Amino acid sequence: MRPIFLFASFLLTLQIARPVEAAPVNVVTTTEDLAAIAKEVGGERVEVESLAKGVQDPHFIEAKPSFMLKLSRADLFVQVGLELEQAWVGPLLLGGRNGKIQSGAPGFVDASRGITALEVPAEPIDRSAGDVHLQGNPHIWLDPMNGKQIARNIAEGLKRVDPKGAAEYDRNLADFSTRIDAALSRWQERMKPFEGAKVITYHNSWPYFLKRFGLVAAGYIEPKPGIPSSTSHMREVIALIPREQVKVILMEPYFSDQAPKFLAEKTGAKVVPLPPSVSASAGINDYFDLFDLLTNRLAEALR
Predict the structure, then answer these.
(1) What is the C-alpha to C-alpha distance for residues 61 and 87, in angstroms, rounded to an integer?
(2) 3-class secondary-structure state, position 125
(3) Alpha-carbon span 70 to 30, nearest angstrom
(4) pLDDT at position 127, please?
(5) Which of 243, 171, 169, 165 is nearest to 200 (CA)?
(6) Helix, strand, or coil (residue 218)
(7) Beta-bridge partner residues of 242
(8) Residue 84 neighbours by CB under 8 Å, 6+ apart
(9) Phi, psi of 26 (to 5 degrees)
């Protein structure tokens, strides 16, 4: 046998003997918060990508063709649910033409499953009520305890599409939950001196966060969810702030600061930009960073 054939045979033997590395599970999420939790649970077995960026309002994301391409290649799709993404996810899933991740398929995960939603309308509503979600307020990730349930939902989805990784996903889930419990004690201790404090928020993004940390929303800059403020509503909020002893006005970074600053000038309350998502500002690289920043910034403002 010629040397070249011997060498080729040797290479082929090496190729056969080398363990075949499984391709990573391709996870696509709607938000950076879900992506951060999916990375915690999936570890080295997954590659995770978010469609929306942390600096964007997750209610209103442009349905780009490039998103359809990402979804066409996904093994697992994770959405927040409770109608948060209803304006843009449906057309993207349809355009992606990936049967593995359609609603009801093994690769589809609704992160809100098993979470008790707040502010579920008790009576039928119409568009005159603003951007109210019929299944309840969808900003569920802003309670760390809900983050644990979101992680459980993602772990179940990963085990469906990658059953060989089940033990690793279970270990990662347990580790994430343990670290959340430890961090929650630290965050609650930080916020304990301010229990019962009242705040004004721009959009109604914070009910889960406020409830977990014992704060109260005294009012909103938006008169109804998604509806711009009016002169008469601003007068009402200006009167409300001293009456309710409100010290801070919370605003998400993707809203204009014009109305919050106007209220601050009229009342002396402090405007506090509060990013509601991972990657929404520098230093928020994971789910734990998000709550470290939120509790630190809010505690400092409420002193």
Answers:
(1) 8
(2) coil
(3) 11
(4) 67
(5) 243
(6) strand
(7) none
(8) 30, 58, 59, 133, 138, 139
(9) -90, 110
d(CA 228, CA 263): 15
Contact in structure between 59 and 43 (CB atoms under 8 Å):
no
CB 231 within 8 A of CB 250: no
Q: Which residues, at least 6 apart from 245, have a Cβ–Cβ distance to it below 8 Å?
A: 198
What confidence tens digit (pLDDT) does each residue in 203-261 have?
999 999 999 999 999 999 999 988 889 999 999 999 999 999 999 999 999 999 999 99
Give the total residue count for the chain: 303
Name the pairing type of β-strands 108-110 and 216-220. unpaired
| pLDDT single digits (tens) 255-294 | 999 999 999 999 999 999 999 999 998 999 999 999 999 9
C-alpha–C-alpha distance, residues 79 and 29, integer Å: 6
Helix axes 287-302, 144-161, angle to 10 degrees: 170
Give percent of the chain above pLDDT 70: 92
pLDDT for the residue numbered 19: 46
As beta bridge partners, residue 27 has: 48, 76
pTM: 0.90
In this prediction, residues 78-95 reach a mean pLDDT of 96
Q: Are 254 and 58 in contact (CB under 8 A)?
A: no
3-state DSSP assignment of residue 212: helix
Two tokens, residue 96: 């992606």
Q: Per-residue DSSP letters for 247-262? A: -EEEE-TTS-SHHHHH
Give the pair of three-digit tokens for residue 65.
């063709």
